[in-house]
Design goal:
There is one protein chain. About 50% of the residues are buried. By secondary structure, the chain is of the alpha/beta class. A seven-stranded parallel beta sheet has the order 3-2-1-4-5-6-7, sandwiched between helices. Helix 3 runs parallel beside helix 4. Helix content is about 45%, strand content about 15%. It has a single domain, classed as NAD(P)-binding Rossmann-like Domain (Rossmann fold). Bound molecules: NADP nicotinamide-adenine-dinucleotide phosphate.
Length: about 250
């Protein structure tokens, strides 16, 4: 790889917001590593689209809730790109809408493992590579939270909202911890964005059905969230760290 080309790894990069980030990053000149959990076809299709537009992309399978997968995912990026300039902690899941009183323990463990523990372990691996104190060249990290972190997710997914609250705290604490090591850490808090995550939670029409609750009266697009993420990754945000930006159409 041309060493002046920046590289980026996006977890959950194969679909939805992550895929929009990969496409926009490729358009802005990044070599892109697209992580996915199980849908190889979606990741391959996205990589093909990036190649067709003259970009560089690799796909990397890995479940962010498994430490061994996370380590091999970052090692694959080391091998292919030789460095990591930007990292987006985007992989996330919801479960069926439920009251806390009805949530099985296994569900709670899985929601926290993917949305929070996975995000922290991935951030750890990114920092190990980027930190100027550890031989790296600095870098930028964006954590994808959710407006649920501040609204609470009552009646639907308080477990997910609580995990995203943890992600917001990760952004604040890690940003301060690595500020002197050439790394900026920020977050975005999407509102209701039209992706397949709602179908995976058993509510395929959720984004449209809840439009009347959004001040701008429409769900957001994955591309609109990607624009905010690429801004935070860019040098235009050189003095922004520890911040989480709402991308919600007004909440
Ligand atoms: P999505 O369309 O459901 O896509 C999820 C992506 O994450 C897919 O690429 C999926 O891979 C990957 N993934 C799932 N579990 C994974 C795991 N254990 N390890 C690695 N990758 C995994 O979701 P989305 O709506 O784009 O959401 C992206 C992020 O935005 C999430 O963190 C979500 O919480 C947050 N967010 C979304 C909304 C919204 O309204 N859409 C609102 C607020 C926050 P496969 O393709 O292999 O399944």
């Amino acid at each position: 790889m041309n060493q002046s080309q920046k590289s980026i790894l996006v977890t959950g990069g194969s679909r939805g917001i992550g895929a929009a980030v990969c496409l926009l990053a490729a358009r802005r000149g990044y070599a892109v590593a697209i992580n996915y959990a199980s849908n190889k076809a979606a990741a391959d299709k996205l990589a093909t689209e990036i190649f067709a537009k003259g970009g560089r992309a690799i796909t990397v399978q890995g479940d962010v809730s498994k430490e061994a997968d996370v380590i091999s995912m970052f090692e694959a990026v080391d091998r292919e790109f030789g460095k990591l300039d930007a990292f987006v902690n985007n992989a996330g899941i919801v479960d069926q809408a439920s009251q806390v009183a009805d949530m099985p323990f296994e569900r709670l463990q899985n929601i926290i493992a993917v949305n929070l523990t996975g995000a922290i372990v991935c951030a750890r691996e990114a920092v190990r590579r980027m930190s100027t104190k550890r031989g790296g060249q600095g870098g930028t990290i964006v954590n994808v939270s959710s407006v649920a972190a501040v609204l609470g997710g009552s009646g639907q997914y308080v477990d997910y909202a609580a995990a995203k609250g943890g992600v917001d705290t990760l952004t604040i604490g890690l940003a301060r911890e690595v500020a002197e090591e050439g790394i900026r850490v920020n977050g975005v808090r999407p509102g209701i964005i039209d992706t397949e995550i709602h179908a995976s939670g058993g509510q395929p029409d959720r984004a449209r059905e809840l439009s009347h609750l959004i001040p701008v009266k429409r769900p957001g697009t994955a591309e609109e969230v990607a624009e905010a993420i690429l801004y935070l990754l860019s040098d235009s945000a050189s003095y922004v760290t520890g911040a989480t930006l709402d991308v919600t159409g007004g909440r």
